[in-house]
Amino acid sequence: MNALETLLGHRTIREYSNKPISDDLLTKILEAAVRGSTTGNMQLYSIIINKDEEMKKKILPFHFNQKAVIEAPVVLTFCADFNRFNKWCRFRGAEPGYDNFQSFMWAVIDAVIATQNACIAAEHFGLGICYMGTVTYNAHELINIYHLPKGVVPVTCITLGYPLKDPGLTDRLPLEAVIHNETYKDYALDDIDRLYFEKENSALTKTLLEENQLENLAKIFTEKRYTKKDNQHFSDIFLDVLKKQGFI
């Protein structure tokens, strides 16, 4: 596939075959990751590779026991990392000033760009990927498991493997929902109704409404998937992580 076909054909793969990923192929994917754009060419990230079954079992509970973590032959965890850069500065007699939230955001952006590059490369070679949104929920636990020093925070993770089946494309909002020309144009009620019409009236949504016994899709998000209580709980934990790791 060419690059555009790869991007437009993205699917979230949660079930994998037992076919292994060769070391040569994994190296190509990692090389693509490190060619991504980066703040000031500082490359403020590190990538942890998990292939060992016992290690994957250790991290499994902190990914809410999602079976993709065990079934995928490779799990990649991307960390915002100022530890390496800070040491380089100090070893060269330059005192770094990166113990702040601005610096953390630089490192997060670098890590996420590297992650997406890895995903595109993997899909180009016929692999499937799934982002694990659980990393920041349990960053404190993963820091302990991975022995991450001060200045390093895990921010995202992907599973990699050959797809067991094709789940089809996930729905997306129409392009006009996210595009603003020159300045931001806020959304009126009729805009929201139009832009979310297809999503709200899909067969999947109807099934979800029946399963959750709720009146609309928005309430599934706010009352079931991402509640205020949970968001505040995990926010407090993550802010404590940033403090302990030296960013705030």
Give a quick precis of the structure.
This protein is of the alpha+beta class and 248 residues long. It has twelve helices and four strands.
What this model shows, in words?
The chain has 248 residues and is α+β, with helices and mostly antiparallel strands. Helix 2 crosses helix 6. The chain starts with a helix and ends with a helix. The protein is 47% helix and 11% strand. The chain has a domain of 166 residues: NADH Oxidase. The protein is globular, with a radius of gyration of 20 Å. Strands 1-2-4-3 form a four-stranded antiparallel β-sheet, sandwiched between helices. The mean pLDDT is 97. It is built from twelve helices and four strands, in the order H-H-E-H-H-E-H-H-E-H-E-H-H-H-H-H.
Backbone shape: globular
- Based on secondary structure, the structural category is alpha+beta
Low-confidence stretches: none
Strand content: 5-15%
List the helices and strands and how they pair.
Layout: H1 3-8, H2 23-34, E1 45-50, H3 53-59, H4 68-71, E2 74-81, H5 83-91, H6 101-124, E3 128-131, H7 139-146, E4 152-161, H8 189-195, H9 197-200, H10 203-212, H11 217-225, H12 228-244
Antiparallel strand pairs: 1-2, 2-4, 3-4
Helix pairs in contact: 2-6
